[in-house]
Amino acid sequence: MAKTTKTAANGLKPALTQDPHAVREPRANNLEMAIGHEVRTYRKKLGITVADLAAATGMSVGMLSKIENGNISPSLTTLQALSKALGMPITAFFRGFEEPKSASFVKAGEGVNLERRGTRAGHHYSLLGHIENNTSGVVVEPYLITLNAESDVFPTFQHEGMEFLYMLEGEVVYRHGDSLYRMQAGDSLFFDADAPHGPEELVSLPARYLSIISYPQRR
């Protein structure tokens, strides 16, 4: 009944774009990096190339590339020209510089118990942290979910974003689309949450698992 799949069918590790051990540029270069990041972000939002922006501002492609990569400190005159070409206020260039970064710490047993939209009887959700208006553009909701003898099975949850499950205790058969996964402590499941999903069979109770949901941040 249960189906399992490998991360990569060919046995090769997937190419990851993030380095978990990466470090930022030296602090002295943070302002230039922040400005460059905003220039690149606004340019891409407009769907124009570096060459297009160079033509609109009268700057060279090489100069713009250095600005976007944080290699030089642009003058106020340069920022004014970029502001006009990109249709953004000059102050927006400094938005990411020393912007406070938030963290959420929750002691054991102190998560916020709540009813999520579509919550079924006996599905206990404890929100383990939440950060609003973060700089990543992604909302992440980490939940500790507990199922007991009074819990309903409900394999047709559907919502936007991606979801990651990590089984802590008990055993459930979890459905995602047309596939069934027998999940025990230590098992994990990562999936597109737009497909119908949820516990199909409660095998051993109580069952507890982490559910981490992520979706684009609406500004």
From TrEMBL:
Pfam families: Cupin_2, HTH_3. InterPro entries: Cro/C1-type_HTH, Cupin_2, Lambda_DNA-bd_dom_sf, RmlC-like_jellyroll, RmlC_Cupin_sf, TransReg_Diox_bact_type. Keywords: DNA-binding. Residues 39-93 form the HTH cro/C1-type domain. It comes from the Bacteria. PROSITE patterns: HTH_CROC1. Residues 1-26 are annotated as: Disordered. Coiled coil: none annotated. This is Helix-turn-helix domain-containing protein. It comes from Rhizobium rhizophilum.
